[in-house]
Amino acid sequence: MRISIDYTNMLAPACGPHGVTEEELRAEFGRGSEAIRTLRAKRDQIRWRDLPYNQDEIVEKILAVANDVRERAESFVVLGIGGSALGPIAVQQALNHPRWNELPKAKRNGPRLYVEDNVDPERMAALFDVIDPETTVFNVITKSGSTSETMAQLLTVMRTLIDLYGEEHLKDRLIATTDREKGNLIGIAKKYGLTTFYVPEGVGGRFSEMCPVGLLPAAVCGIDIKEMLKGAARMDALCDNDNIEENPALMYALLETIAMKKGANVGVLMPYADSLKYFADWYAQLWAESLGKKKDGLRFGQTPVKALGVTDQHSQVQLYTDGPFDKTVTFLGVEKYRTEFMIPHAVDENPNVAFLSGHTFNELISAERKATAHAVTVSGHMNKTILLPEVNANTIGQLMMLFELATAYAGELLGINAYDQPGVEEGKNMTYALLGKKGYEAKLEEMKDSAERKLV
Amino acid sequence: MRISIDYTNMLAPACGPHGVTEEELRAEFGRGSEAIRTLRAKRDQIRWRDLPYNQDEIVEKILAVANDVRERAESFVVLGIGGSALGPIAVQQALNHPRWNELPKAKRNGPRLYVEDNVDPERMAALFDVIDPETTVFNVITKSGSTSETMAQLLTVMRTLIDLYGEEHLKDRLIATTDREKGNLIGIAKKYGLTTFYVPEGVGGRFSEMCPVGLLPAAVCGIDIKEMLKGAARMDALCDNDNIEENPALMYALLETIAMKKGANVGVLMPYADSLKYFADWYAQLWAESLGKKKDGLRFGQTPVKALGVTDQHSQVQLYTDGPFDKTVTFLGVEKYRTEFMIPHAVDENPNVAFLSGHTFNELISAERKATAHAVTVSGHMNKTILLPEVNANTIGQLMMLFELATAYAGELLGINAYDQPGVEEGKNMTYALLGKKGYEAKLEEMKDSAERKLV
Predict the structure, then answer these.
(1) Which of B36, B228, B316, B401 is the one with CA 20 to 30 A from A212?
(2) pLDDT bucket at A43, cuts 50 / 70 / 90
(3) Which CATH superfamily is domain A48-223 in?
């Protein structure tokens, strides 16, 4: 059961003159083959690609810790931001009940999950309105231990737990996921004897879902992480294929990078399933932070846009059809939802309503997806559909690896480094300066407005 | 207490050669003045502008119905999509507890709120896992009564309620918000004697938050809707100012339309407050559906992108700084959050962590907003900041009217009709065809693929 990409509507025969031509595509096949070779040679710099294969022992430890947490915790709180949050949120939403935290305990196969990925004071306070520290286990995730947001949350949680239960019991309620040797968190973890998982060398934040960063929260919520890794392994193998036309990640990357050159600086990801809504957030980080780069005076990067079918048909599709030819749309379709839900008869006297009765919601959402893809195509806009036979742990593993590899291939095709994020340093340093961190005093000078302030 | 826009960083003196110059801005002032006059003349076609002034009687009815619902309902479920959903979600998130539905009844000032704006079968089923029909009141919202998604949900709810309680009791549990005369829903409302609110003439879906569409759900959840309307009235008056430099909505529209001409086909809205997260969704519909238009062979529309500060600093800001000069960023800042939350001392031995202690989360999030605006500016990208003194019913009313009027002005400046959505008809009709609605048989023929199917 594997996911597939239908890219018919990316091509000119389907969507017309703004589409990719067969010639444009074939002209890139040479560079595609080169990208396969380069990525293979880089394998030890992109260790996330090995995660489906080299974690047998770690997975057993994760499952043991997860089982312990599941037995004693009502709530599991992840303190993390960026890649440490987006993967856990996406996987939880994809594979568990849509209203998990609101379900009574008997209907929930694990503790409530909270992923705290902001430092809004109102949200921080609100967390303590809904959890009981007595029955909560926290998992702080930061590779470097220098992420201000996560460390501020950690200080809050540590103070609370130490005051309530004493330093010696911190280890019962706090799990660390961090670098094995470096950084501020590993020191704290050692001092208090915390259960600790490691972010492997060569696995950046946005590529970390398949390591303990993502696997522990998933396992705590009863998700079959072995099956996720199996799905990821399967997709990794498919995307190592030298035959470009049978290599899904490379085809995805080729089509998108060609589309970018043709002016599509916007890339919409539009799942037709609430379960995949936050998958689009995860994708948005991966695509934006990996490909948004400057090099040799040139600027790269396609702005990812998250949409949700059918909801955003009533919000964004007007723009996607009648608006500029500046985007690609990638639909995520689901062939078989986990529930079938009938549209019953109730207004049979009105044929304008009654035509819906007897159909299922499944038929309705699928018809709308196909109809929207058709409308986007006939209006001349490039689009493609990734089809998931079902949403399950295996296909989610496939989907994540597909996007990770598509991003890696796109990085090669654009000739940029997809694994750094130098553009965020300026903001980080200025935050340190504004908070009075030692050594950043001079930085404050830059903040003095050079331009006249304009207010309305 | 009014919101303001700081647009210093939209201009070339602050952000450099990719910014708007003083000359470019002044050159558009003539067209700006024309837009003020046109909009005044259109006033009876844009009746949403009158909503803050002409609803005294309706507001009293809303409050009476809301009070009744508040007394007897544990859950309030909105069935609606697009404008019927995005406004209610945005306002609820802005003004009530971030985890409202999870709070125990005693801490909640009103029933749980569910806004069902999709037809995902899994989500539809999940709703009935968390609500008890016995203590639930439903509010179906569709002006035309021909929105397939909402009508499918309505059929489900009607069947459930009629089977459980009998036709004669439908009126105790279902409220309709629809057109006064036309459409499928008003007929149903009359047949069953439902409490009914009307969507006024000249108020399109995306401009409907300040009519019963948005006001009833807000009032049910204890929000001060009179104060919201007061805020909207205040902003309406400010934005009628002939002095362009004192007219916030017109300045917003001028700056964005000039930016579009300079290549900014992407417009990011990035609130620094979880409470405003879904406000960005509401804005995205307003901006995309109003301005995404084709006319005389030209294509218009800026793609709205929703981001959340500080969260998306770890996801999108790399792209916003190092990526192409193809976007504007609008930050939403909050001067005073409703909670102050300390970052305590707990790791004083490590200065790389301890520098945070003693500050508040409030200081941290504000420092990060300012630092990010600075980083985006020094990297040469246009940005501006809308500052809310506080997030409350009045400032939310202001903010919504600001964006509605900015959208209206932008429509005038671009010379397009901001109030229709012809581009969604194709998809609607094809959905009808796929579901076998009478009269759409021929449409199916178009679906037959003309292009060879490409799969990977």
Answers:
(1) B316
(2) confident
(3) Glucose-6-phosphate isomerase like protein; domain 1 (3.40.50.10490)
